[in-house]
Amino acid sequence: MRNQILSQIIKHTIDSSAHLTPEMALRLITPQCALWSAPPEENPFKDPYWAFYWPGGQATARYILDNKHLVKDRVVLDVGSGCGAGAIAAAMGHARTAVANDIDPVAILASQVNAQLNGVTIATSSEDLVGAACSDCDVVLVGDMLYDEEFADKLFSWLTRLAVQGKLAILGVTG
Fold first, then answer.
1. Confidence category of residue 1, pLDDT binned at 50, 70, 90
2. Residues 6+ away with beta carbon under 8 Å from 24
3. What does DSSP assign to residue 34?
């Protein structure tokens, strides 16, 4: 099953550097891909949010790449990681550990593909960590996850608790 999903990721995405982090190549669905305009029934992925590099995620990764000192030798958790760009940026910034975390198992595979494409090593987790203590992490990245008010309240409350505990919380938001 894993190999089948990996081959679908490769088949339906392209390597792209046309974004705010051109030093990073990512397998994404872009206008050059057939899935960009295909009807939903032709999409082999249920909800391929991971296949798009959302602006808030781009801003978060760009910020990390421009401020590597924030992640150097630290444990970084990229929550709702999608394509893994935040974790990859942290790994490029010499984080001690960079973790791509997403509840979508396809996003986890896409993150691994993208990390390999960029020659970095990341850890992955598909556990729902929003609200968790995250005692082992130093930095928490969140990009474009404020998709509804109830979840946004939960996310802000959690990030505030983490910040009070001394963790650096970086939130990339658009809209």
1. confident
2. 17, 61, 65, 85, 88, 89, 92, 118
3. G
